[in-house]
Amino acid sequence: MMIKKLLSTIILPSLLAITSMPVVAGNNFAKISPSIFNNNSISSGENLGRWWLKSAKKYNPLPNPFLYHFEGVYSYSESSGNIESNAHRGSLKLTLRKGVITSITRYSINDREINQVIRNKDIKMQDQNFRQGFQFSLTERLDAVAGLLWEKSNKKYLEDRSTYYGGIKVMAVDRPNLDVMFWLIYAETSTAFMNSQIQKVPKYRDFPSVEDYDSNAIRLMEELNWKITPTVTFVGSGEYMISLKDTDYYLWKLKTGFNFKFSKNISFVVSYLISYDYNPLVESLQTYLDNRRAVSPANTGYIYRRDTALSFGFKLTF
């Protein structure tokens, strides 16, 4: 695929090469304290403010050190009674910057184990997401972006969804305590489905397998970070992707949350996520279940396009 080839053969090698070159921002950009120019080869950029939310060319001159920012979130929940369950959720985000190049790496995992007491049956489910993005600062408010996304989800019956993308990022609002960003992205996506997870249920063993689905797509994303007080921050993000091969297939996600900081590096976090996904497997499974329900309504389940999750946990930053 075109974007995948460009990413692996041209874009990534070019970004790596550029990070070793000296760069200078234009004189029309914001001034920063000279205290960041020291002999440290790597720094958290503590005196730069929330630099990981800003475009690299926001600063003039550009900081000398190799900058890093880390965020880790963990939450745990359990329930008992007729249904016993426990869930572990974790996410990591590492932001690295040298000159006008920024690398953002994200990984999240959600492990759930459910036991139906009356049937003494254990069900294990896992969702994973990985994102690797690169941003090249063009101006104080505009970045060129490229990267990849990968997703695997028992909940959505996704065996492998890989997306390679390229586009632009715009800083719509850039204030000391409020940042709002938008992405406009062209993507190439490839999806394999967990047909066997459905077919291993005895009553659904005749479900016809859905073939892998490849398509070009348009992806829109938004991110908001509002530091309401020194200890309370509101965060929000959203994304929408529509297939260009068949515009009936699309997905969207919306996530909001609050971070309550009670030390320099640790916060209590609460978040709410809504995700909607309509793809060839959902369409095929819905048709299959509707046809089966017409014959055996009492013995047929449902497939939902929307999922929600409410999470509480702790966040570590440095």
Would you mind describing this structure in some detail?
This protein has 318 residues and is mainly beta. It has a single domain, classed as Beta Barrel (Porin). It has helices spanning 2-18, 195-199, 280-295, and strands at residues 30-31, 42-43, 59-60, 66-79, 83-98, 101-116, 121-137, 142-153, 158-174, 178-193, 213-227, 232-243, 250-261, 266-278, 306-317. A twelve-stranded antiparallel barrel has the order 4-5-6-7-8-9-10-11-12-13-14-15. Strands 1-3 form a two-stranded parallel sheet. The chain is globular, with a radius of gyration of 22 Å. Mean pLDDT is 87; it is low at 14-35.
List keywords for this structure.
318 residues, mainly beta, Porin, twelve-stranded antiparallel beta barrel, two-stranded parallel sheet, globular
CATH topology: Porin
Q: In angstroms, what separates the terminal alpha carbons?
A: 37 Å
How many strands in all?
15
Q: Which sequence of SSEs, written as H and E, runs from N to C?
A: HEEEEEEEEEEHEEEEHE
Average per-residue pLDDT, rounded, comes to 87
Largest sheet: 12 strands, antiparallel, barrel
| Low-pLDDT residue spans | 14-35
CATH superfamily: monomeric porin ompg
CATH architecture level-2 label: Beta Barrel
Bin the helical content.
10-25%
CATH class: Mainly Beta
Tally of contiguous helical segments: 3
% residues in beta strands: over 45%
Quick one: overall form? globular
| Overall structural domain count | 1
Question: How much is the radius of gyration in Å?
Answer: 22 Å
Strand order of the largest sheet: 4-5-6-7-8-9-10-11-12-13-14-15
Helix/strand class: mainly beta
